[in-house]
Amino acid sequence: MSTEVRPDTFAMVEGPGFLRILRRELLLAYRQRGDLANPLLFFLMVLALVPLGVGPAPDMLAALAPGMIWIVALLANLLAQDGLFRGDFADGSLEQLALSPQPLYFGVLAKVLVHWLVTGLPLTLFAPVLGLMLSLPESGYLPLLLSMLLGTASLSLLGAIGAGLTVSLHRPGLLLPLIVMPLYAPVLIFGTGAVQAAIEGFAYGGQLAVLGAMLAAALALAPLAVAGALRISLSD
Amino acid sequence: MNWQWFHRLGSPRWFYQKTQAWLPWLAIASVVLLVTGAIWGLGFAPQDAKQGNSYRIIFIHVPAAVLALVGYYVMAISGAIGLIWRMKLPFVVMRAAAPIGAALTFVALFTGAVWGKPTWGTYWVWDARITSMLLLLLLYIGVIALGQAFLQERTADKACAILALVGTVNIPIIYKSVDWWNSLHQPATIKLTESSSIHPSMFYPLLVMVVGFYCFYAWSLILHTRQQILVRERKTRWVQQMVASGSTRLVEEGGKA
C-alpha cells in the first residue's frame, strides 16, 4: 500500500500556473524525502565499484575520474527519469495538466525544473567529493562543477522527452535508456571535454559555451517535444 | 499551385496503386547500376597509390553511409509531414524507413571496420565519425523499438515521429564530424561546391554506385511501405478483394479482378 499523499488538485496551492505546479512538485518531492537520496546513493555506489574494478592506483583513477563521474551522473539522471511523469499519469493529474488553459509547455518546464533541483543539482554539488575520492587533479574541480551544472540541466530536459514518450507503456524496460542515450551523448562529450581540457592545462571556456548553447536550445525546444509526447501518451 | 498530388499522398490505396508501375523500373535501374558500378569499381578502376586494392570497399562503404544519413532525413521528414497534416501514409513510410536505415548504417559500420583493419591496423577506433554512426544506429533502433512498444499503431506512429524529429539534431553533427574534429577517418573527398579530391577514374564508378544505392533504397522503401500498407489496411475492402483475387496487383476501380 502506498503511504504517499498526493495533493489531488492543482488549485490547492495558490499563485500563477507555472509557480503553482512548481510548488506542488516541490511539495511532492519533499513528501517523498527518502527518494531524494536515491540518485546520490547510486552515484556513490557505482563510483565505489570503479577502484574495485580497475585497481586503486591514484594515477589510473585520476585519468578515469572526469569520464567516470560524468558517466555515472548521466546514469543516475537516467534512473530518475522514469518516474518523472509516471505518478501523474497513473492518478490522472497529468490529464488535468494537459487540459488546463495554460500551455503544457510551462507545466513540463516546472516539472523538469523540479526534477533537476532534486537530481541534477545534488549530483553536481556531490561530484567534487567523488572527484576527491577518485583523486581528480586539482585543476579539474571548477570545470567539473560548472560543466555538470549546465550539463545535468540539459540531461533533465532531454530525458524528459524519453520519459514523456514511454510514460503510457506498462513495461518500458530498456526502452527509455535506448531512446535517450543517443541524445545524451553530445552533452557527455562536451562535459568531459571541459574537465579534460582543464586538467591538461588548456582553456575550457569553449566547451562550457557549447554546453550553455545546448542548454539554451534544450530549454526552448525540449519542453515542446515533451508536451507533444505527453499528449500522444495520454491519447494511447 | 495545384495541391491535389499532395492530398493524394494521404491515401495508402492511391500510393499502392501508383507505385506498382514504378517497382519494375526501380528494380531494373538498381540492378543495372549496382552491377555496372561494382564491376567498374572492383575490376576496372585503378589501384590506390597508398591503399592498393583495399580501398575498393569504398564502392559499398560510401553509398551505404550516404544512404544511412539520407534515410534518417526521409524518416524524420515523413514523420513531420504525418504529424503536421495528420496523414496516414507518411507514417507508414517513416516506420518502413527505420529498419532499412538501420541496416544501411550497420553495413556502413561493418564495411568501415573491414576497411579499417588493413589501413588503420584496427577494426574499431572510437573516432568521431565512427562513434556518431554508432549513435545513428542506436537512434534507428530506438525508433524501431519505440514503435513496437505501443499497442495502438496510431500512438506508435506519432511517438516515433517525435523521437525521429528530436534525433535529427544529431545528423548534422555526424555529417560534419570528420571536418570539425580532426579524426582518423579521412575528411569528405566528394564535395559539391569545390572540386573533389578523388580522381575521376575512381569517382565515376563511385557515383554510379551511389545512384544505384539511391534506386535500391527507393525500391526497398516502396516495397516495405506497400507491405506495411497491406498489413494496416487488411480490414478494408480493396485489400480483401485484391487478396481474394490471388494477386498483389491492384486493379483500377471498376475493373474485373
From TrEMBL, chain A:
<keyword id="KW-1003">Cell membrane</keyword>
<feature type="transmembrane region" description="Helical">
    <location>
        <begin position="140"/>
        <end position="167"/>
    </location>
</feature>
<feature type="transmembrane region" description="Helical">
    <location>
        <begin position="174"/>
        <end position="199"/>
    </location>
</feature>
<keyword id="KW-0812">Transmembrane</keyword>
<feature type="transmembrane region" description="Helical">
    <location>
        <begin position="205"/>
        <end position="230"/>
    </location>
</feature>
<keyword id="KW-1133">Transmembrane helix</keyword>
<comment type="similarity">
    <text>Belongs to the CcmB/CycW/HelB family.</text>
</comment>
<dbReference type="InterPro" id="IPR003544">
    <property type="entry name" value="Cyt_c_biogenesis_CcmB"/>
</dbReference>
<keyword id="KW-0813">Transport</keyword>
<feature type="transmembrane region" description="Helical">
    <location>
        <begin position="112"/>
        <end position="134"/>
    </location>
</feature>
<feature type="transmembrane region" description="Helical">
    <location>
        <begin position="60"/>
        <end position="80"/>
    </location>
</feature>
<protein>
    <recommendedName>
        <fullName>Heme exporter protein B</fullName>
    </recommendedName>
</protein>
<dbReference type="Pfam" id="PF03379">
    <property type="entry name" value="CcmB"/>
</dbReference>
<keyword id="KW-0472">Membrane</keyword>
<keyword id="KW-0997">Cell inner membrane</keyword>
<feature type="transmembrane region" description="Helical">
    <location>
        <begin position="36"/>
        <end position="54"/>
    </location>
</feature>
<dbReference type="InterPro" id="IPR026031">
    <property type="entry name" value="Cyt_c_CcmB_bac"/>
</dbReference>
<keyword id="KW-0201">Cytochrome c-type biogenesis</keyword>
<comment type="function">
    <text>Required for the export of heme to the periplasm for the biogenesis of c-type cytochromes.</text>
</comment>
TrEMBL record, chain B:
<dbReference type="InterPro" id="IPR002541">
    <property type="entry name" value="Cyt_c_assembly"/>
</dbReference>
<feature type="transmembrane region" description="Helical">
    <location>
        <begin position="159"/>
        <end position="175"/>
    </location>
</feature>
<dbReference type="InterPro" id="IPR045062">
    <property type="entry name" value="Cyt_c_biogenesis_CcsA/CcmC"/>
</dbReference>
<keyword id="KW-0472">Membrane</keyword>
<comment type="similarity">
    <text>Belongs to the CcmC/CycZ/HelC family.</text>
</comment>
<comment type="function">
    <text>Required for the export of heme to the periplasm for the biogenesis of c-type cytochromes.</text>
</comment>
<keyword id="KW-0812">Transmembrane</keyword>
<feature type="transmembrane region" description="Helical">
    <location>
        <begin position="96"/>
        <end position="116"/>
    </location>
</feature>
<dbReference type="InterPro" id="IPR003557">
    <property type="entry name" value="Cyt_c_biogenesis_CcmC"/>
</dbReference>
<keyword id="KW-0201">Cytochrome c-type biogenesis</keyword>
<dbReference type="Pfam" id="PF01578">
    <property type="entry name" value="Cytochrom_C_asm"/>
</dbReference>
<keyword id="KW-1133">Transmembrane helix</keyword>
<keyword id="KW-0997">Cell inner membrane</keyword>
<feature type="transmembrane region" description="Helical">
    <location>
        <begin position="202"/>
        <end position="225"/>
    </location>
</feature>
<feature type="transmembrane region" description="Helical">
    <location>
        <begin position="128"/>
        <end position="147"/>
    </location>
</feature>
<keyword id="KW-0813">Transport</keyword>
<keyword id="KW-1003">Cell membrane</keyword>
<feature type="transmembrane region" description="Helical">
    <location>
        <begin position="21"/>
        <end position="45"/>
    </location>
</feature>
<feature type="domain" description="Cytochrome c assembly protein">
    <location>
        <begin position="14"/>
        <end position="185"/>
    </location>
</feature>
<feature type="transmembrane region" description="Helical">
    <location>
        <begin position="57"/>
        <end position="84"/>
    </location>
</feature>
<protein>
    <recommendedName>
        <fullName>Heme exporter protein C</fullName>
    </recommendedName>
</protein>
